[in-house]
Amino acid sequence: MTSYSNQTSSAARFTSFLRNYYIYFVLVAVVVLLSTANLDQFALFERGNFLYKRNIINILRVSAPLLVMAGAFTLLMVSGYIDLSVGSAMSLSAVVYAMLAINGVPFIPAFALTVLVGVLLGAVNGFLVVRLNITPVIATLITLSLFKGVALLLVQDGVSAIKSGNFLKIPGWFNDYGRAKVLFDLPAAFWVAVAVTLALIVVQNRGKLGKYAAATGGNPTAAKLSGINTGRTVFLLYVIVGASAALAGIARSSFMSLGDPLSGDGMELTAILVVLLGGTAFSGGEGKVLRSFVGALIIMMLTVGMLTIVPAYYQTLVIGSALLAAAASNHLVSRKGKES
Amino acid sequence: MSSLTENIPQSLQREKMSDEGFITSLVVIVAVALFLLASLLVPNFFQWQNVVNLVTNNWAVISLGIFVSFLLVSGNFDLSVGGIVALSGVLSVWFAQSPDGANALSSGLGMPYPLAILCALIGALAIGAMNALFVVRLGIPSIIVTLGTMMVARGIAQVITQGSQRNTNLPDEFGFLGNLTMFGTSVKLPVVLMLLLFLVAVFVERKMVFGRITYWIGANPEAATLSGINRSWHITKLYLFSAAVAGMVGILLASEFKSGFSNRGTLMEFDALVIALLGGIAITGGFGSVIGMFFGAIILAVVTSAATGMVLSPDWQFILKAIAVFLAIVTQTWAVARRNR
Q1: Which residues in chain B have Cβ-Cβ distances shorter than 8 Å to A152?
Q2: Which helix (H) or strand (E) holds A290?
Q3: Is some CB atom of chain B closer than 8 A to the CB atom of A137?
Q4: Which chain regions cross the lipid bilayer (chain B) (predicted)?
Q5: Alpha helix (H) ranges present in B57-112?
Q6: DSSP H or E run through A252
Q7: CATH of residue A167
Q8: CB-based contact (8 Å) between B217 and chain A?
């Protein structure tokens, strides 16, 4: 689609280049900035060097929940839809996973069941949006409240989260998934995120689903008229987002060693921020999974890096400003591309 | 069509009620029905004082809901109001605190209270102007913009209060406005302001050009522009009014509790949206009424207070909200479709 118009002028080619690759420049800029900033006096960045191995590993394993969601969320936004319930779905999955584990279910069944729960949550969203035709924002706002409520109800009164108590203990294997070193000193959760992202990149570039998603987001009517079952595409995307939210919940609860019903709060905003930062148009139709993955890395580096420079109470302000800035720059770049 | 008209009584047949009036009356009927149902199920629910409480306890959300509803009618979201409530409250405290406090959190700028309120309102308006700038000038979807400005507003409040609250070293008159009781009853000034605002909003919405333009814009933005309506300026005004009301709510809440708390108003933006949706305001724009919003708030209040009365855990409120909005949207869509079949 874009390749036609981009051959017309060098200015247009430059805009397109900027749109496709700016995220990598931002990544390099952030790494350089954080590496050169003098962080000697802070404990988290050892020896004041951002590029120190343990620091990088720490950031990557904390990022696992966001990384695993970024790809699926991108595909959903490419199709022109949105899911505000991912944070709640993540919390609910974290609680379910911890409950299964604490009641003696072994790792693999607990993992599979939790992903199944995520699939169900995604299906609920898909049902509301596709079958009942409720506006995506409203439908997922309803499920945001619903999933959060269920997560809070699952945790006993008077306790803030599912954790080891007097009678039930969280088993020893519980935080292996989020912490134990598997490959290059990184935990399984991180590699699952990478695998999911790779799979979604293949889906986007080679698979029917990727093409259908872009077609649905670009022009729903045209997509329908050319025989694409847009309803089924969107439903499937919601299910994938639900499953990835469950993976994120598992990663988070494994890393924290507890099932916290509030652990995913605000995650929907971070996910939107990451996808917008990756240059996905919110009107749908374009966007790349890999770029959102890089966007997620940038956001995690900034938030973790920022904690060492300024107090934690600056976080909301910075994330909010970043969201506005990403939305504005994203919009300006994509508008320039269309005008040319 | 013919089978439908047979069932409608004579009085309605002459001038068919609009869909909007139909949905709004439906909301009112549901609110009353739910109240009666709750009275049967919950002991001591059926009391005049309880009716008063249902309204007075929700003055903040209803006030916010007024312009959230106007914006929804015009086809735009405003999710920044909760953040503005926190920001203006914190600002009013910070401006009014005397500068000689013992530590950073107890010393402010030492302005006289009226000036502090004014400056806090200007701060709230700045967020509203930011909403308008991004939504109107840059054409970015309002849901993303207002979520961003909500975080920015709350973020500034958190920075000023260092993540907690400011409540010391305040002048005596600071707690006056929020706790002023009116007409010799226990009804406080904020509630009276909310009711006044609501009545004005109903009048503006029904009878004034400003209100009708809002509906035109929501129903068909392009037709509105082509018929000479300055759409950008109108939406800008709506965002500014919404921010001003949210600022007022924040200042009154800060005054009521004599503190500026950076987490005050959390989730209020969602509640304001929820009551507007419960009240039958359609997100597609151009449809709905503040009257519906008001009774939407009553529905939510009845449901949550009845649930508490029936000794459900407070965690149930999220699920109840979800179910209420879901049912409201599904039945309203169904009712309008069936009516116009």
Answers
A1: 315, 318
A2: helix A289-307
A3: yes
A4: 21-42, 54-72, 79-95, 115-136, 143-160, 180-204, 238-255, 267-287, 294-312, 318-337
A5: 59-73, 81-96
A6: helix A230-256
A7: 1.10.3470
A8: no
Query: What residue numbers bound the domain in which A223 lies?
Result: 63-329
- The span from the CA of B52 to the CA of B33, in Å, is 17
Query: Of B139, B125, B138, B137, which is closest to residue B80 (Cα–Cα)?
Result: B125
Secondary structure (H, E, C), A115-162: HHHHHHHHHHHHHHHHHCCCCHHHHHHHHHHHHHHHHHHHCCCCCCCE
Closest by CA to B80, choosing from B149, B133, B141, B158, is B149
State the pLDDT at residue A243.
Answer: 93
B17: helix, strand or coil: coil
pLDDT of B88-146, one tens digit each? Answer: 999 998 988 877 777 777 777 878 888 989 999 999 999 999 999 999 988 888 888 99
CA angle, residues B313, B319, B324, in degrees to nearest 5: 120
Q: Does residue A27 lie within any of the structural domains? A: no
User: Could you tell me where the beta strands, DSSP code E, fall in B190-244?
Assistant: none
In chain B, where are the structural domains located? 63-266+282-288
CA distance A168 to chain B (A): 23
Q: Name residues of chain B where pLDDT drops below 50.
A: 1-5, 10-13
What is the Cα–Cα distance from B37 to A339, expressed in whole angstroms?
A: 58
What does DSSP assign to residue B181? B
Is A111 among the domain residues?
Answer: yes
| Contact call for residues B295 and B87 (beta carbons, < 8 A) | no
Copy the structure tokens of residue A195: 């695998």
B315 interaction partners in chain A (CB closer than 8 Å)? 149, 152-153, 157
Q: How many CA atoms lie within 13 A of B190 on its CB side?
A: 28
ipTM score for this prediction: 0.82
Q: How many domains does chain A have?
A: 1
Residue A53 falls inside a structural domain: no
